[in-house]
Amino acid sequence: MKKIPEKLLLYKVSTNKDPESFGLLYDLYVEKIYRFIYFKVGNKQEAEDITSEVFLKVWDHINQDKELKSFSGLLYRIARNAVIDLYRSRAREPYILNIEDAYGVADKKNNWFEQIDLKADVRLIAETLEKLKQEYKEVVTLRYIEELEIAEIAEIMDKKKVAVRVTLHRAIKKLKELLN
Amino acid sequence: MSNDIINNLKKLKHSDVGPDKSWVASNRELLLMQVKNTVQKEKSSFSFGNVWPAMSILMPKRLVYSVVRPMVVLFLIVGVTSSGWVVSADASHNALPGDWLYPAKRAVEKTKIAAASVVGAKKVEATYRVEAAKSRAEEVKEMITNVELNKKDLVAETISDLKNEIVEAEKKLTEIQEDEGQTQMDEMVKDFKVETAGIMIALKDAQTGLLGDNNEDKVLSEVLEVAKDDVKNVDQRVVEVVITKHLGGDKTVTSEEVKDIIGITLQVALDDAEGSKKAVEEDGLAIEEAKGLSADRYGLSTDSQGASQELVEGLEVEVVSSTESGEVIDSSTTTLSVESVDDEKIAKADSDNKEAVEKVDTASNDVTEKVDAVKTLLSVGALEDMVEKMKEVKTAVGVVVDISDESKASVASIVPVKEGEENTTSTEGVEGLSADRQETTSIEDVAKESVEENL
Lengths: 180, 455
Hints:
The complex is a heterodimer of chains A (about 180) and B (about 450). With about 180 residues, chain A is mainly alpha-helical. Helix content of chain A is about 75%, strand content about 0%. Chain B contains 15 helices and no strands.
């Protein structure tokens, strides 16, 4: 359940196209979106670029009077698509045959946990997380790091809530196996 | 194990994985600058679609979109539909037969009656029937008195509808009477009395508008007379039903209330008789005025033969003028404008009226005697005998009213009401006649002026 001030900001943004309110929403979400993207791309510069692009796309979406069911859902969905676009652009690089390979390349290069100061057990989790397949990694990140509701994750991933729960359960199970 | 994993995952959120503060600020500034450039200057007007996001501030979004919005939409649909119906029904309130909104008016009435019938509310249905009859009576009055509407051909049909409603109301009264249960009738009787009184007034006014000397008016007048009798019957019937129910052990109407109802009924009967008697006497005054008018005209005729020098001159001028112009002007042309009243008719009307005065006096006394007898029976509590006596009162009042109506028709024959002229009620007979005389006098003046001009 979102707090009333956030809902009020959303109302002002969606009905009045109020830039100041959008700025306040930016303040609320910028870190989360940045982190979500950073975990995926493992690159600070790319994470910043994609974060800027995400907020601008969200504003365009609102400015076009398109339906806004969930602001956070929209943000994460756009962020997710932006990351996929990045993977695709990497996949188009010479000698890379398909997107799956591109994901693999991206994941192999994504050692973000090595660049920050983490406790040993947390670092182990982060390292293991990177070994999960993209879908599992994403659902675990959204649920336990970004602490989103199942419904929000379902909207972001364009899945049913039941499917999200199942995926999450399998992801945690896989994570356990890898940790053991 | 799972909890440990989850806790460690949550710790990642609080780790040093965040954007630089400086980048956040500069990016914010840049973003807002880009955003502001795309904002349209004009202020958005109110949109109903914004209501839902606004409601979502205070309520869960799912509740707003899944429950509140469908309910509001449904409410609005029902509201708009029913208000449209109410507006139409209200607008149709004054519709007359032949108007395009008239079917809506009748549909509302029929719906009310049907609803009462379905739930078995006999009292309510009877009252609605009488209300509908009152509407018909007012329509009849409007169609007759307002000649510009040109709806006279629809009067007979409307009177027929009125009678049907009265017949149905009477049927319901019979059902109520035969019903052994307790029936709270005091309010119903009051409503009934008010409505029937309204019907009688409307029908009387309508009948006054039918004093024309043509056959159509006479037929309609007779039909109206029958309708009035029907209304009187149903008015009487409701009192009978109350008394019968009371005698049958229905104590929802107390003895005092029965006495009040009967008291009102008797007073109405006395007022009817008294009003009719006065009308006959006023008819006598009208005939006297007509006689005086006729005598004046006769005097004018005599003067034309040489009695009054002034008028003789006028008449001579008329003759000379006629000769000079070379046209044959019938001397009656001048007198035609003052429409002479047949002396024989006046004499007959006078004779009829004198007879009517005697008759109405006797009949009126008869009514008073019978009313007194009813009051006596009421005081000793002989309600059954009283019911029978009240029927006699009704008959006696009918005799008085008939005499009055005959007298009115007799006077109308010597003071015909012109088509399109404003009608006067029976109590305004004398004034009506005076106005009529003023009208003929003014025509006389115009005729005189015409003669003077020809000079």
